[in-house]
Amino acid sequence: MYRCEVIHPQSKEVLDSGLAVYFKGPKSFTGEDIVEFHVHSGRAILNSVLSALSTFPSLRLAEPGEFTRRAFESGRLDLTEVEGLHDLINADTSSQRQAALQAVGGVLRQRFESLRGTILRALSFVEAVIDFGEEEVEDDVFQEARVLARKAHTEVQSLLADYRRSEIVRSGLRLAIFGPPNAGKSTLLNFLAKREAAIVTNIPGTTRDVLEVTLDLGGLPVIVSDTAGIRSTEDIVEKIGIERAIEAIDKADVKLCVLDVAELDKASAELNSMIRRVKPFLLINKLDSRPLTPSQALALAKEQHNAEGVWAASLQSGVGVDAFMAELGAKLHDTYAAQLEHGRTDTPLVINARHREHLQGALQFLDAFLGQGLEGEQNGSSDDIVFAAEELRYAAQAIGAITGRIDVEDILDTIFREFCIGK
Ligand SMILES: Nc1nc2c(ncn2[C@@H]2O[C@H](COP(=O)(O)OP(=O)(O)OP(=O)(O)O)[C@@H](O)[C@H]2O)c(=O)[nH]1
Ligand SMILES: [K+]
Ligand SMILES: [Mg+2]
């Protein structure tokens, strides 16, 4: 790194004083020789330095993503690391940043490469039988291939199971607000969002559609949905709204029911059965409208509903709101941790929709291979064996597409060359 002045090559004008860094290839970001200028920010400085550089005929501005593309093409990054870099730059919350850092660090690449290696080893066993004939190879070669394919199958399934965890890291927990009409559900959404996201009126049945807002609640990404009040109604539009509300509640990781303190015993049969079924957290709202202390309201609510987290507050006067927010934040963190761990202790991998698609493809090919009934070579005709090999090749290709390494043949060659066949 050099401390230097940046001087216009023709006019010799001093444009800025800064630092220049020389990264010698191949240990640079793109693998090529790279020079970085560290100059002061400010439009005039940047413009003058860029226009000075453009006076060199061999230089031009990089296309969007060109540095990362070159890094990929020179093998410095695979596709999962490229995606991780993109996620890292766009991370909004600390949980997203941590997960993206893992991908940039190559954790995903290693998992997918080792999975692909397992499939290729299985393939090399099957290829051995095709190339050398059944007499030349050990009896249990098919068995060996099946064991490896089954191992790969299990691994693909566990990666697919990570998809929901990844979705939570990427897009957030889903929190559904529901309850009877007019309890203050939309008021709560607006309070959480710190803006008038939803229409609030004193007319019951104001909210019809499900309204989703993505928020940062205590450092976690949370998709909050406000829903139509649940009651029996003949209004067609409201009916549809209530059906959508029920869908949103069922999809949610955290369910929060808002009740009006004055109407605790007036909930409809539909709502009561929903509360019994989904066991939501309860927020008893409008405490200002009755001469009750928060603890009296809580006792009253617990009499009606046997819920795990119950708070009493007034979204209008602000009474009880701080405690509610702090404890809801803690509950969200608990749920988040529980969802991520899923009975496991490793940090979540960020499996995105693209990865999932290829994993599902690989699973089908592995299923097809395992369903071929090649328990022993006596069961399989040589055609069957050739088809079985094809399934494994496609499975390996599907995984290779995730990392961007689809050159199956040459890797197969290396494995095959090392394969001890006794010849
Ligand atoms: N007194 C009092 N009124 C409140 C409180 N919170 C909300 N309200 C009022 O209650 C009425 C209904 O509020 P909304 O937020 O629209 O209720 P909702 O549950 O979304 O109603 P629907 O969408 O119709 O199901 C509005 O007039 C709010 O201003 C509160 O803490 N105290
Ligand atoms: K309302
Ligand atoms: Mg509403």
Automatic annotation (TrEMBL):
It comes from the Eukaryota. The keyword Nucleotide-binding applies. One of its GO terms (cellular component) is mitochondrion. SUPFAM superfamilies: P-loop containing nucleoside triphosphate hydrolases, TrmE connector domain. CDD domains: trmE (cd04164), TrmE_N (cd14858). The keyword Nucleus does not apply. One of its GO terms (biological process) is tRNA wobble uridine modification. Residues 172-333 form the TrmE-type G domain. InterPro entries: G_TrmE, GTP-bd, GTP-bd_TrmE_N, GTPase_MnmE, MnmE_dom2, MnmE_helical, P-loop_NTPase, Small_GTP-bd. Keywords: GTP-binding, Nucleotide-binding, tRNA processing. PROSITE patterns: G_TRME. It holds the Pfam family TrmE_N. One of its GO terms (molecular function) is GTP binding. Belongs to the TRAFAC class TrmE-Era-EngA-EngB-Septin-like GTPase superfamily. TrmE GTPase family. This is tRNA modification GTPase TrmE.
